Amino acid sequence: MIQLDNLTKVFDTPKGAVVAADHISMTVPSGEICILLGPSGCGKTTTLKMINRIVKPTSGKVFINGEDTTALDTQDLRRNIGYVIQQIGLFPNMTIEENITVVPKLLGWDKARYRERARELMAMISMEPDAFLKRFPSELSGGQQQRIGVARALAADPPVMLMDEPFGAIDPINRAVIQDEFLKMQQELKKTIMFVSHDIDEAIKMGDRVAIFREGKLVQHSSPDDLLAAPKNAFVESFLGEDRALKRLNLVKVEEVVSDEIATVSPGDTLETALARIDDYGYQNAILMVNDQRQPVGLITRAKARTTKGYCRDHFENVPATVTLEDDLRKVASLMFSQDATWLPCVDDEGRVCGQITQRAMTHHLGSRFRAREAATRNPDSAVKE
Amino acid sequence: MELIQYALDNIDLLATRTLEHIALVGVAVGIATLTGVPIGIAITKNERLAQAVLYAASIIVTIPSIALFGIMIPVLSLIGQGIGYLPAVIAVLLYSQLPIIRNTYTAINNVDPALREAARGIGMSPNQRLRMVEIPLAVPVIMAGVRTAVVLNIGVMAIAAYIGAGGLGTFISRGISQSDPRQLIVGAVAVSLLAIIVDYTLLYAQKRLTPRGMKLDASTA
């Protein structure tokens, strides 16, 4: 757990005092990732760096796992906090192995232990130990270097990690890969992480919670979903962008929206039966045809069923796409747009139909939070206005 | 032909003088490295002190060597060392300070701030940062300063022959006083050759001392 209590930094500049961070109080529960987000100069990086005293706080306190860090020795404090920076900062004069074992060495581990740890860490970041440990940072690509940067921060297994735009300098494709790998690692490691970003999409993807900063103040601290659904004021709203409802698509899984009520026909049914069922269920265009294992095999269109006689097995069209319960709505929406579909069948792990997802259900789900908020703001609340 | 003949006839003397010359410069620059590098590192902690020290070192270099020898004669005569080995070494020691201090200071100051922050962030103490990161990264530039000092002072040391310090300058000073162009030219060529050879030798040493990871960096850049 990281707890900040009225953390404040005032820089004395030739133009006078500048308050970079103004009485920041917040808590990051154990095992969660908290993203500090905001435009440049908003105080997010200063706040992060006060935790490991790269920036010395003017006033206020930092608690880690309930312990006040003010009294701790700076070097001890830092050795127990993983630190990853945007510029990566691998030491060019050291091999990969020397780089990732720096902290264990500083902590006085014996050689066998830290060498073993180096191999563990390489496995954790999916890099072949024998191929990389003896090489130098300059021989690695940017993405590989930042993986090593993360490994170095994790080397002594610190409970807390600070990450300052760690993936900001990596190209978009590799960034997405590294983000996914990192989230997978985090599921097992359960570190308490503070993570500075200026990328709203990254924040929504990586964060259990997002803290929005502006001009040294913490404006809003909430879950990504709450943030997108209920921005606290006009600044947050504009920072999130006009398409913030669409950004929530990333956060919602099919299983939250899926309807398990879906009518199907089997290949042996007649088109007459199919038409009747389409009408019964009020489907507009088509009905799904499934095989004995309830796997989707085709679509019977209303037009075909109405104009033709015969069995479904002779007159079906291909299923444009299916989705699984774990897919997010962004993928679903994308499939719907590309297939010109208003609904898609949803399948379970064995490929059996378990429900359907409709555009209507998606918009209803996403809109419910906004509607709830509008209802609330009809009672004007001065705090909501800026 | 006459010159080559002269050089061959006096090959033993030439070798002795060359060794004297190398020993004088070697001892002086060696001591200068031992003092200059720590000074260069120390002044990175204080910008104003750094400016003062570099200024003082620059002023020393502007003093003509003949004048410096002249100043030292009465001072060092107090301990009976007015001429000869000691003032020669002191002069070279002083002249070497600027390139060595300046290069050390610049090299340490120019260590990538991101590396410095990473080193602090993972919990290195200031001394550990110096030893594990800053000095290894600064070595190539510090060595370049030492090279400059050596090459510069091989020339200065030639003049120290006038105060009886020995070395290859003896050929030049005798050549002038005896109006003997053979000695003059042999001495001058020997000094130049020595400077070139030592420069390349130190360049090789500099490359050997550069951390391997940084050499790779330079070759891909």
UniProtKB/TrEMBL annotation, chain A:
Residues 316-373 form the CBS domain. It is a peripheral membrane protein. InterPro entries: AAA+_ATPase, ABC_transporter-like_ATP-bd, ABC_transporter-like_CS, CBS_dom, CBS_dom_sf, Gly-betaine_transp_ATP-bd, P-loop_NTPase. The keyword ATP-binding applies. It catalyses: a quaternary ammonium(out) + ATP + H2O = a quaternary ammonium(in) + ADP + phosphate + H(+). It is found in: Cell inner membrane. Residues 2-240 form the ABC transporter domain. The complex is probably composed of two ATP-binding proteins, two transmembrane proteins and a solute-binding protein. Its EC number is 7.6.2.9. GO terms for molecular function: ATP binding. Belongs to the ABC transporter superfamily. This is Quaternary amine transport ATP-binding protein. It comes from the Bacteria. NCBIfam families: proV (TIGR01186). Keywords: ATP-binding, CBS domain, Cell inner membrane, Cell membrane, Membrane, Nucleotide-binding, Repeat, Transport.
UniProtKB/TrEMBL annotation, chain B:
InterPro entries: ABC_transp_perm/SBD (IPR051204), MetI-like (IPR000515), MetI-like_sf (IPR035906). It is found in: Cell membrane. Pfam families: BPD_transp_1. CDD domains: TM_PBP2 (cd06261). The chain crosses the membrane at residues 22-43, 52-72, 78-95, 137-164, 184-205. It comes from the Bacteria. Belongs to the binding-protein-dependent transport system permease family. This is ABC transporter permease. It comes from Halomonas rhizosphaerae. The lineage of its organism: Bacteria, Pseudomonadati, Pseudomonadota, Gammaproteobacteria, Oceanospirillales.
